[in-house]
Amino acid sequence: MTTARQLTEPTALPVALVQPLLDRAIAGDAPAVEVFAPVTGRKIADLPQSSTGDIETAFATARTAQQEWARRSVRQRVAVLRKFHDIVLAEQDTILDIVQTETGKSRAHAFDEVGDVAVNARYYASVADKLLATRKPRGVLPVLTQVDVRHRPKGVVAVISPWNYPLALSVSDALPALVAGNAVVARPDNQTALTALWAIDAAERAGLPRGLWQAVLGRGSVVGGEVIARADYVDYTGSSATGRTIAQQAGERLIGCSLELGGKNPLLVLADADVSRAAKIAIRACFASAGQLCESMERIYVHDKVYDQFVSEFVDHVRAIELGGALDFTSDMGSLTFQRQLDTVSAHVDDAVAQGATVLAGGKARPDLGPYFYEPTVLTGVRPGMTVYREETFGPVVSIYRVGSDDEAVEQANDTAYGLNASVWTKDVDRGRAVAARINTGSVNVNEGFIAAWGSADAPSGGLGISGTGRRHGPEGLLKYIDTQTIAVQRMLPIAPLPGMSEELWAKAMTLYFGVMKALRQK
Ligand code: NAD
Predict the structure, then answer these.
(1) Which of 217, 242, 259 has the most ligand 1 atoms within 8 A of CB, as the residue to mutate?
(2) Partners of 482 in the beta sheet?
(3) CA distances (Å), 248 to each of 12, 148, 217, 235, 483, in order?
(4) Ligand 1 centre and the CA of 162: distance in Å?
(5) Residue nearest to atom 36 of ligand 1 (CA)
(6) DSSP label at residue 196
(7) Which residues contact 157 (CB under 8 A, 6 or more apart)?
(8) For ligand 1, atom 3, which residue shows the shortest CA distance?
(9) How many other C-beta atoms can be found within 10 angstroms of the C-beta atom of residue 497?
(10) Residue 124: CA atoms inside 13 Å, Cβ hemisphere, count?
């Protein structure tokens, strides 16, 4: 039975903290909306909303700020990221309070976001200079053709981010855009707007010019189109369904977009796995932020030989999870964030149970703890036809399946339209790599759940299939925010027949040249 820790302190934030942040939003012409803390139901703020005029103002200001920012050296821009990194770590108590209050997640899971921002700030500060340097590739005629490939910022990037990882997803995608010389107009989710506004405030205290990173506020369906209509590039994180709408709107304008979408992620426990370790680490992989994590595991495939041991140990760990919403590190797992999430989670579990699935742990809401708490839940006996079999739950629900071989595990893992993240457990790392390579996901963690791949900032992260088209982290996470410009200078001789030379002779000379270049293995 999951135990409960009694809430002892209020979670609504002090007005002295909230009001200056609200004042930063480029919003106020549209009617405000009330935002409530998921854990206590207490109001956090009357959140100002942006009108079309507000959005227009934000983009105009951003465009002006961007011109000056792009003229600064990369070194100057990097200095802001370094300072920002330090502020986020030094002021983590404040931002952890805000993230917890807005999302309802536990402090440990909120800290993952602080870590994500620190890692990405440090990474892009260290590689921006190299990634943005002008490249000098070989010209069509060596020496005679001199080529520079320059990098130009896109201009104003729209970062439209969801509510589940509000710090990581609104900040870690903005930092590479900014260091590449862009301005950013953010549209954080209403539920978690204060987190993004705090980050903007912190970035300005780190030296970012005012107006370069702003936030407009509003429901996606209301303001999303207005934002995309003015952006030079769109970075979107959210569901696959909304991702299609964003792609259409960006496509209509022929601007690029990066889409980070949903997942139905598999975890494979092979016959030779360290079962105890797998059972322990799988807890974080399944229940971080109450499962409201795009990368979290919703399907576990366990080899027959180790199935009983894994299930027994995993369920013991699940039952020991302490639920709570206090603003400290005492709880293992927090609340869901909305009624909508609670409804989806309840519907998936109830449907599975009604069709014959077995609940090994959890399986019910905990209104005694707060309006949206739901117990971490383990299901077996899940079959095709049950909603939870194929659809993303995005909550603390995982289904365990017995498999007889690696091939069966891989086949089951790939039986989905999603392709975001996967996890493989084995004592044989080569076997783990080989199995990983057969799984159709953008990242696979061997002997880890999601943090090994996600936290390796030099490696790209993103989805296959309906999990998205974009990449964040790594060089790809910055290069998407720039256009290249090739400047080729032809010197001395033209790329054309010399005076008096026939086209036929020119063709023969060039054919000879192509052959020599190939023989020399030149690019
Ligand atoms: P959602 O698509 O309903 O909403 C996500 C965000 O998009 C919200 O902030 C919403 O306001 C905004 N939005 C909605 N319609 C919009 C529109 N027309 N224009 C612009 N913005 C719009 O998704 P959700 O259920 O609230 O969020 C959870 C989903 O996000 C899950 O599917 C999850 O897997 C996914 N997600 C993916 C990643 C990733 O990195 N791949 C990360 C976090 C969440």
Answers:
(1) 242
(2) 153
(3) 38, 34, 22, 14, 21
(4) 5
(5) 238
(6) H
(7) 174, 177, 182, 183, 184, 185, 231, 232, 233, 234, 235, 481
(8) 239
(9) 15
(10) 33
286 is catalytic: no
CA-wise closest residue to 392 among 375, 417, 358, 372: 417
Looking at this protein, which amino acid is placed at residue 483?
D
pLDDT tens string for the chain (523 positions)? 344 333 344 447 999 999 999 999 999 989 999 999 999 999 999 999 999 999 999 999 999 999 999 999 999 999 999 999 999 999 999 999 999 999 999 999 999 999 999 999 999 999 999 999 999 999 999 899 999 999 999 999 999 999 999 999 999 999 999 999 999 999 999 999 999 999 999 999 999 999 999 999 999 999 999 999 999 999 999 999 999 999 999 999 999 999 999 999 999 999 999 999 999 999 999 999 999 999 999 999 999 999 999 999 999 999 999 999 999 999 999 999 999 999 999 999 999 999 999 999 999 999 999 999 999 999 999 999 999 999 999 999 999 999 999 999 999 999 999 999 999 999 999 999 999 999 999 999 999 999 999 999 999 999 999 999 999 999 999 999 999 999 999 999 999 999 999 999 999 999 999 999 999 987 7
Dist. CA 166–CA 154, nearest whole Å: 24
Decide whether any atom of ligand 1 lies within 6 Å of the 186 Cβ.
no
Active site residue 504: no
State the residue for tokens 């061997």.
Answer: 446
Could you tell me whether strands 297-303 and 397-403 are parallel, antiparallel, or unpaired per DSSP bridges? parallel
Block residue for tokens 């921002």: 117
Ligand 1 binding pocket includes 371 (Cβ within 6 Å): no
- 215's CB contacts (< 8 A; 6+ apart) are 24, 25, 26, 27, 185, 186, 187, 188, 193, 196, 197, 200
Catalytic residue, candidates 226, 294, 295, 448: 294
CB 128 within 8 A of CB 77: yes
